[in-house]
Specification:
The complex is a heterotrimer of chains A (164), B (281) and C (219).
Chain A: E1 7-9, E2 12-14, E3 21-22, E4 28-30, E5 50-53, E6 56-59, E7 74-82, H1 86-93, E8 101-106, E9 109-118, E10 122-130, H2 135-156
Antiparallel strand pairs in A: 1-2, 2-3, 3-4, 5-6, 7-10, 8-9, 9-10
Chain B: E1 11-15, E2 24-28, E3 31-37, E4 43-46, E5 52-53, E6 55-58, E7 61-64, E8 85-88, E9 92-94, H1 98-105, H2 111-114, E10 131-135, E11 140-150, E12 161-171, E13 174-180, E14 188-199, E15 202-211, H3 218-236, E16 244-245, H4 258-270, E17 276-277
Parallel strand pairs in B: 16-17
Antiparallel strand pairs in B: 1-7, 2-3, 3-4, 4-5, 6-7, 8-15, 9-15, 10-11, 11-12, 12-13, 13-14, 14-15
Chain C: E1 2-5, H1 10-22, E2 27-30, H2 42-47, E3 55-58, E4 61-63, H3 66-77, H4 87-116, H5 122-145, H6 158-168, H7 181-191
Parallel strand pairs in C: 1-2
Antiparallel strand pairs in C: 1-3, 3-4
Helix pairs in contact in C: 1-3, 1-6, 4-5, 4-6, 5-7
The chains are: A alpha+beta (164), B alpha+beta (281), C alpha+beta (219).
C-alpha cells in the first residue's frame, strides 16, 4: 500500500491500511495491532534526499553533488500532468528548455515550465510565474500553461479526431 | 505447480434469484461463459462452443467450474438452520487478485482504519493472539478465538461489544466468517465472501450472509454489508504487488497476520496460484 | 424530511452530507438499488417516474434532482451555503452545479460500470471524466490564486457539495486523482469541515484525530 495514501500526525506518517506509523528517518514507530511492541529496526521505508527550494520540492536518487537549481524572480504556480512527452511540449512551445526551464508565451503572457518525465508518454509540468505578478497575471499564466498542454497533446494525438 | 490446480474448483457466477432463460454473460479465469435457467428450472452454464459446464445452486448463488470438481461444494450447515435470514448482498467488481480479496477478508488489523467506528476504532487497535490451523481432514484453513472490540459489530448490535470471530477458508477464493451474534448468544452469524475470478487481477465479489436478526429490514442488512465491502475496495485496488506473493520476501508478517500466512502457505501447497506470484516464475 | 436513499449512491450522499453539514435530520428510507433494482419497481416509479434516486419527500414537496435537494436543504437550514450574496457569486455557484451533472454522467457512469457491472463505454466515460477533472482542477487553481479555497467563494457552498462525491470516487471508475493537486487539497478542505460525514469509498481524515496514547493491557 502506498504511503502517499496515508495520513500525517505530528512528525510521523501512517499507512492508511493498518496504521503503521513511520518517523522522518524511515523507521517504524508503532504497529497499532501490537501497541506494546517496539517495532524491529528492520521495518523501515526507503528514504530519498529531499530539498525545498523556494516552494519547489526536489528529490534525488542518490547523494547529489550540489543543491537543486534556483530560479530567481520566479515563484511556483501549479503542477499539471501532460499526456505527452517533453519533445511534444517543446514542439508546441516552438523552443527547447534552457537552464532547466521551458519558456512559453500565450496571449502576451509568458510562463516558465519545469518539466519532469513520468514514464515514456507523460510529463509533469511545474508551472512558474514571475514572483511579482498579480492575480490576473497569474491566472493568465495558468491558462497559458493549459494552452501549451492542449497544443502538445494535440501533436501527440496527431491523426486522431480533435476532441473539443 | 501450474495454474490449472484452480480449474477444478467451484466458483460463484451469479445470483440464483437473477437466473433467466435468456442468459447472462460473464467469465471464469478469462473464459467467457453464459449462465441461464434451463427448462427444468435448474441453472445451466455453458462455456465456449456451447460446451456444458458443471452447475449448481447453493447459498443463493449459481456455481460453476471450468474443470471437473472432485468434491461437492463445501458445506455451511448454518444455511439450513430455521430462523436465519439469508442475505444476497449483490456483486461488486474489484480490480484486484481474487486471492487478495479473500486475504483482506481474513484480516482484522485494518478495522479501526478502514471501517472506523463500525468494526473498530482507535485506540482499540490491539489484535490479541488467536489460534490458526490448517485442518488436514477437511483441508481447510481455520482461525479461531479471534477477539476484537467493535463499536458497531452488526446491524443488530446495540452499542460497542467485544466480538468473537472464527474464519474459515474452504476453497481458494471463498472465505467464511463466523461472528458473535448479538440477538442469540451461543449462535454464530455467518458472513461469507464468494469470489469469482475473472482474470488474475480482476474479480467479482459476491458477499452472502446467514444471520439471526428478526428486526432489521433486508435492505438495511444488504446496505450494511455493502458498506463494509466497498470500504475495503479502494484498499484492494491499491495493493502492491497486484498478484498475491506466495513466497516470503519484502513483506514482514506480525502475529496479527497469522491467518493470511496460513492461507498463503495452503495456497502454495495446493498450487492455487491463479492471482498469485512466486519468486521463481 | 424523508430521503429515499442508497448508501453507495454518490448522489444520495450529496444529500446526506448537505443535511449533516446544515444540521437537518433526515428520515432515511433505504432503497435496494443493487441488487434489487427497487428504484425501478412500482412503488418508487410511481413517486418518481425518472426511476432515479435520491428522492426527497417533505410534506407535499417531492424532489427528484439532487441539486434541487442541496438548494432546498441550504435554503431551509443554512442559507450561507447558497452562496448567493452577490449576482457573481450566485452565478458561480450555478455554473459549478450545472458542471456537476457532467461528473455524474462521466465519472459516475464509469464507476457504475467498473464496480456494479452497469453497461457503458468505459473508455469514453473515463476520457470524459478526465476532461471534467482537468476543468475542475483549473477552476480550483484560479480560485486559489484569488485567495478562495472553494469553488465559488472562500467558504464552501452547495456547488462544492454537488461536485465533491463523484470527484472523490473517481478512482472507483478507474480514473486516478493523482494528477490533480488542487482537487486533492479541495477534497481535504471539504473533509475537514465540521460535521463532515463519510460514505463507503470516501474516508475521513485520520489526521484530524490525535495519535492515541498507548494503553496498557486493553482489550
Amino acid at each position: 500500500m502506498r504511503l502517499s495514501r496515508g495520513f500525517v500526525r505530528g512528525e510521523a506518517l501512517s499507512c492508511i491500511y493498518h496504521g503503521w506509523r513511520y518517523a522522518q528517518e524511515g523507521n517504524c514507530l508503532r504497529i497499532p495491532a501490537h501497541p506494546g511492541l517496539t517495532p524491529p529496526d528492520t521495518i523501515r521505508v526507503a528514504m530519498q534526499p529531499v530539498e525545498d527550494g523556494d516552494g519547489i520540492i526536489w528529490i534525488s536518487a542518490g547523494e547529489p553533488a550540489a543543491g537543486p537549481p534556483r530560479f530567481d524572480g520566479l515563484a511556483p504556480l501549479r503542477s499539471m500532468m501532460a499526456e505527452t512527452d517533453i519533445a511534444a511540449l517543446e514542439a508546441a512551445a516552438g523552443t527547447k528548455s534552457a537552464a532547466g526551464l521551458l519558456d512559453y508565451t500565450h496571449n502576451a503572457q509568458t510562463v516558465q515550465l519545469l518539466l519532469a518525465p513520468e514514464g515514456q508518454a507523460r510529463t509533469l509540468m511545474h508551472v512558474l510565474a514571475d514572483e511579482d505578478s498579480n492575480p490576473t497575471q497569474r491566472i493568465a499564466a495558468s491558462r497559458a500553461a493549459e494552452a501549451l498542454r492542449r497544443a502538445a497533446e494535440h501533436i501527440r494525438a496527431a491523426g486522431s479526431p480533435n476532441d473539443p | 505447480m501450474t495454474r490449472n490446480a484452480m480449474i477444478d474448483e467451484w466458483y460463484p457466477v451469479g445470483l440464483a434469484s437473477q437466473l433467466d432463460v435468456h442468459g447472462r454473460k460473464t467469465a471464469l479465469m478469462g473464459e467467457p461463459i453464459v449462465v441461464r435457467r434451463g427448462e427444468d428450472g435448474n441453472a445451466k452454464v455453458t462455456g465456449g462452443n456451447e460446451h456444458a459446464l458443471p452447475a449448481c445452486i447453493r447459498y443463493g448463488h449459481v456455481w460453476s467450474s471450468l474443470g471437473d470438481p472432485q468434491k461437492p461444494l463445501f458445506a455451511i450447515p448454518e444455511a439450513d438452520q430455521p430462523g436465519r435470514r439469508l442475505v444476497d448482498v449483490g456483486v461488486v467488481r474489484v480490480r484486484c487478485s481474487p486471492l487478495r480479496a479473500v486475504e483482506n477478508f481474513l484480516d482484522i488489523a485494518h478495522f479501526p482504519f478502514v471501517h472506523t467506528d463500525i468494526l473498530g476504532s482507535e485506540p482499540h487497535t490491539e489484535v490479541q493472539n488467536y489460534k490458526v490451523e490448517i485442518r488436514e481432514d477437511e483441508d481447510e484453513v481455520w482461525a479461531t478465538q479471534v477477539k476484537f472490540y467493535q463499536p458497531q459489530a452488526a446491524k443488530s448490535a446495540e452499542g460497542g461489544i467485544t466480538t468473537e470471530y472464527m474464519y474459515r477458508v474452504p476453497a481458494p477464493t471463498c472465505s467464511i466468517l463466523y461472528k458473535t451474534c448479538p440477538p442469540r448468544p451461543g449462535e454464530w452469524d455467518v458472513i461469507t465472501l464468494f469470489v469469482q475470478p475473472l482474470a488474475e487481477d480482476l474479480c467479482n465479489v459476491w458477499p452472502w450472509m446467514a444471520l439471526f436478526d428478526d428486526e432489521t429490514p433486508m435492505t438495511d442488512l444488504i446496505h450494511f454489508q455493502q458498506t463494509i465491502f466497498v470500504q475495503d475496495r479502494s484498499i484492494l485496488e491499491n495493493q502492491i504487488p497486484r498478484l498475491l506473493p506466495l513466497d516470503p520476501g519484502m513483506e514482514i508478517p506480525t502475529r496479527a497476520d497469522l491467518t493470511s500466512v496460513a492461507y498463503r502457505r495452503w495456497l502454495k501447497r495446493h498450487g492455487y496460484t491463479y492471482g498469485a506470484q512466486l519468486v521463481a516464475q | 424530511m424523508k430521503l429515499y436513499d442508497y448508501v453507495l449512491s454518490p448522489s444520495c450522499y450529496k444529500v446526506r452530507l448537505m443535511a449533516a453539514l446544515a444540521g437537518v435530520k433526515l428520515s432515511i428510507r433505504p432503497v435496494d438499488f443493487h441488487p434489487g433494482a427497487e428504484h425501478r419497481g412500482p412503488e418508487l416509479m410511481t413517486l418518481n417516474p425518472a426511476g432515479s434516486i435520491p428522492i426527497i419527500e417533505d410534506g407535499d414537496l417531492v424532489l427528484t434532482e439532487s441539486s434541487a435537494m442541496l438548494v432546498y436543504l441550504a435554503a431551509t437550514a443554512a442559507p450561507q451555503w447558497l452562496g448567493n450574496d452577490t449576482a457573481m457569486h450566485a452565478a458561480r455557484v450555478q455554473q459549478w452545479i450545472s458542471f456537476s451533472h457532467r461528473l455524474t454522467a462521466s465519472l459516475g457512469a464509469a464507476r457504475l460500470h467498473e464496480m456494479l457491472l452497469r453497461p457503458g463505454n468505459i473508455d469514453v466515460l473515463q476520457g470524459q471524466g478526465t476532461a471534467a477533472l482537468r476543468e475542475l482542477e483549473a477552476g480550483l487553481v484560479e480560485q486559489s490564486i484569488r485567495g478562495q479555497r472553494f469553488l465559488a467563494l472562500d467558504r464552501p457552498t452547495v456547488a462544492d457539495i454537488a461536485c465533491f462525491p463523484y470527484v472523490a470516487l473517481a478512482p472507483d471508475g478507474g480514473v486516478s486523482l493523482d494528477p490533480y493537486p488542487a482537487i486533492r487539497l479541495w477534497s481535504r478542505a471539504i473533509r475537514a469541515i465540521e460535521g463532515f460525514i463519510e460514505m463507503p469509498g470516501i474516508h475521513r481524515l485520520h489526521e484530524l484525530k490525535p495519535e492515541p496514547v498507548p494503553e496498557v493491557g486493553e482489550a
